[in-house]
Design a protein that fits this description.
GIY-YIG endonuclease
Length: about 100
């Protein structure tokens, strides 16, 4: 069973990116969309979920997120384009 997610939020296609990790993707994205979390995502209006990567263990997700935060932006954009070339909001497709 999946216990963790890495996710990326943006404000528009090819816009500002935020990379995060959570145990409850649907709830966490809802919090970002509603502006309930002060900080980067609220300040820049990042409400569109454009990438989600499941992990079986939270420790693995945290390590992957730490690695990805050091990636160049182009690598993150390429990852989004591989699974979501239209930069569609994936929130409505979450279970």
């Amino acid at each position: 069973m999946l216990q963790a997610w890495i996710y990326m939020m943006t404000n528009r296609p090819n816009g500002i990116l935020y990379l995060g990790v959570t145990a409850s993707l649907r709830h966490r994205v809802w919090q970002h969309r509603e502006g309930l979390i002060d900080g980067f995502t609220k300040r820049y209006g990042l409400t569109r979920l454009v990438y989600a990567e499941p992990h079986a263990e939270i420790a693995a997700a945290i390590q992957r997120e730490r690695n990805m935060k050091h990636w160049p932006r182009a690598w993150k954009v390429r990852l989004i384009l591989q699974t979501n070339p239209e930069w569609s909001d994936l929130y409505d497709h979450l279970l």
